[in-house]
Amino acid sequence: MDFTRIKEMFREMNIYGYLKKYFILGSFDGSITAISVVLASFISKESSFSTLILGLSGLIGISVSSGGNAFIVEIRDAEAELKKLEGQMAKSMKGSYYDRALKLLVVLSSLAHAASPLIGVVILLIYSIIGGYMGLFLSLCVTFSLLFVMGTVFEREVKEGIVTGLYMLVAGVVTLTIIYVITLKMA
Length: 187
Description:
By secondary structure, this protein is mainly alpha-helical. Helix content is 88%, strand content 0%.
């Protein structure tokens, strides 16, 4: 397989931006999940170990689900793209560089979307190691920093990035408010 040619095709198809999108979306999911578990555990007075186990379980679930979903969606899109191209070229594209690039895209997209939620492990570890109010405070700081940075990196323009970063922060605050209210009612 000529990786130089595939790399050129990736650049032409804007695959790097595509993978960035999957990575940011998965990281967003993992960060929100992890801080939600941390907040609920803090309010419920769960042990640091329980918080870590519950959080890791959630993150693994999101990772497997995200990777599987990305694979299913991308394999279908790749098949449709190849079929469309074959119709335009009036010949089979099976085994071509384009076919191989699409297959590699499916694998890379699935891996990016599966691995990215695991960034939430950092949030869980901060809380589990430090614990208490300081652990919660630092976990919140790291989460909100991650959300904002993810938003700014998501966009190409600085102004749009700041707006998207703020949207992600608002989504985090709304989620934590809901978790806070639910946990207080149930604890």
